[in-house]
């Protein structure tokens, strides 16, 4: 019996907390029989690819958008220096620092050479850069996890733990294999009774993880490891609890850590960009009856949130109020849409998919379709241009909004919608749209972006804070 555990980037940036609160936690039954999948240190993947929230280009973004521009090279050198500074902080002036910097330099120098060669090649008319960008993205992403995993394994060995670095990145591999095969080959000689594997969050596969999961690739590696090795539990260590709302909005004293919930709730959170785990990664755990636990690295005595497929709250209730800003409402009105809604919708979705914009929600009536998109303004303008080109007689509008959702494993509560509407009305908040599905696991309010925070606070006060939570922090044992 063993666990597979993933450590997030913010937690990884604090090695002492990772070692003492997670690896050597005295509440656990020994150090071994555990597999750790690690993320890159906080901010490193943003620098390698692009900033996850702002879209500010990293090495990949600069390289992809400027084939004759060497700004990516400058960014490479800057990041190399930053990673060396991390090494110095972790290892000090020791022989281990030299080993760490040598390992890092090999990866960074290889990547720079590959990009320079590709840049030169693609200046020839017969070679198109676009055909290689997916591979470039994967190669760059792998550097962050290789760096953190190698460092962590070495530090743990220094501190008396028999840790082993498991490199799933396929760096300099001479042939491509599937993700499952790579995992099996990497673990065939590892003895979990005596060794502690520290595994790269990025794993190379013949199909390319990032083409399907983009920045959720480490969660897919984590999920497949749990499934293939038959883990008794999957655990994600983050820098916060999975709580009833963002404590920074509703107050630390009002936010309630969630003790139990199910994968339906996790999927709703992921849809809003507040993922406990990527939905496709959760699918494998769910289908194989592997429970998922979310723990706070910095509160190791708390048992965290246990997520299973079959959990339903003892009585119907709202468990979480979650919201997201920066959503673009893209409304298309056309008189000819009436009676032909499905054809319009399929074409609109096809256009949106071309730009990889995430559809958070959607509403329709006889002659209008509104998609609520999580993307940036540049992408929205490109989508608008194609829609107007395809439907020249349509009236196309866009507006920046926020989505606030009440989520629970069982929300079949008579009158809950009226209660929610009253709560936001009391704060003079205008509701632009309301979505409620028959599955009864979430209700969404679309509001003006400026009303996001007040909507979260008002709904949390009306639906969560009114209850006695003396026993709400369920110990998920």
TrEMBL record:
What species does this protein belong to? Cycloclasticus pugetii
Aspartokinase ACT domain location is 404-462
Per the record, what are the reactions this protein catalyses? L-aspartate + ATP = 4-phospho-L-aspartate + ADP
Enzymatic class: transferase
> Which residue ranges does the record assign to the Aspartate/glutamate/uridylate kinase domain?
3-296
Q: Which family does it belong to?
A: Belongs to the aspartokinase family.
The processes (GO biological process) annotated in the record are: homoserine biosynthetic process; lysine biosynthetic process via diaminopimelate
Superkingdom, according to UniProt? Bacteria
A GO molecular function term, named singly, is: aspartate kinase activity
Q: What is its EC number?
A: 2.7.2.4
What is the name of this protein?
A: aspartate kinase
């Amino acid at each position: 019996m063993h666990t597979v555990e993933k450590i997030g980037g913010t937690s990884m940036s604090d090695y002492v907390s990772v070692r003492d609160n997670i690896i050597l936690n005295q509440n656990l039954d020994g150090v071994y029989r555990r597999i750790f999948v690690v993320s890159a240190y906080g901010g490193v993947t943003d620098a390698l690819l692009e900033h996850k929230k702002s879209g500010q280009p990293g090495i990949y973004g600069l390289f992809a958008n400027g084939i004759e521009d060497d700004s990516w090279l400058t960014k490479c050198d800057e990041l190399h220096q930053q990673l060396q500074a991390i090494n110095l902080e972790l290892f000090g002036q020791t022989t281990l620092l030299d080993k760490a910097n040598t390992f890092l330099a090999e990866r960074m120098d290889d990547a720079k050479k590959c990009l320079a060669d590709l840049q030169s090649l693609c200046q020839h008319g017969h070679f198109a850069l676009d055909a290689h960008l997916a591979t470039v993205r994967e190669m760059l992403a792998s550097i962050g996890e290789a760096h953190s995993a190698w460092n962590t394994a070495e530090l743990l060995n220094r501190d008396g733990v028999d840790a082993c670095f498991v490199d799933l990145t396929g760096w300099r591999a001479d042939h491509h294999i599937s993700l499952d095969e790579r995992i099996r080959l990497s673990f065939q000689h590892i003895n979990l009774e005596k060794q502690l594997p520290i595994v790269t969050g990025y794993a190379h596969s013949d199909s390319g993880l990032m083409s399907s999961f983009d920045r959720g690739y480490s969660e897919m590696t984590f999920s497949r490891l749990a499934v293939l090795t038959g883990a008794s539990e999957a655990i994600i260590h983050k820098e916060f609890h999975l709580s009833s709302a963002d404590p920074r909005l509703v107050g630390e004293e009002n936010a309630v850590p969630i003790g139990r919930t199910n994968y339906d709730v996790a999927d709703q959170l992921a849809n809003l960009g507040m993922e406990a785990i990527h939905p496709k990664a959760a699918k494998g755990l769910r289908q194989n009856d592997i429970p998922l636990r979310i723990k706070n690295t910095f509160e190791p005595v708390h048992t965290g949130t246990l997520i299973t497929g079959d959990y339903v709250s003892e009585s119907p209730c709202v468990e979480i109020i979650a919201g997201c800003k920066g959503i673009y409402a893209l409304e298309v009105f056309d008189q000819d849409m009436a009676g032909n809604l499905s054809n319009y919708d399929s074409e609109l979705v096809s256009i949106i998919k071309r730009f990889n914009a995430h559809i958070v929600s959607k509403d329709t009536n006889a002659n209008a379709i509104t998609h609520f998109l999580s993307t940036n303004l540049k992408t929205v303008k490109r989508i608008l241009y194609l829609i107007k080109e395809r439907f020249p007689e349509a009236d196309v509008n866009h507006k920046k909004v926020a989505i606030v959702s009440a989520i629970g494993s069982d929300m079949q509560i008579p009158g809950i919608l009226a209660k929610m509407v009253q709560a936001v009305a009391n704060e003079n908040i205008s509701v632009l749209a309301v979505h409620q599905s028959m599955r009864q696991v979430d209700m969404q309010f679309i509001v003006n972006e400026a009303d996001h925070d007040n909507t979260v606070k008002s709904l949390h006060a009306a639906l969560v804070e009114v209850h006695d939570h003396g026993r709400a922090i369920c110990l998920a044992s």
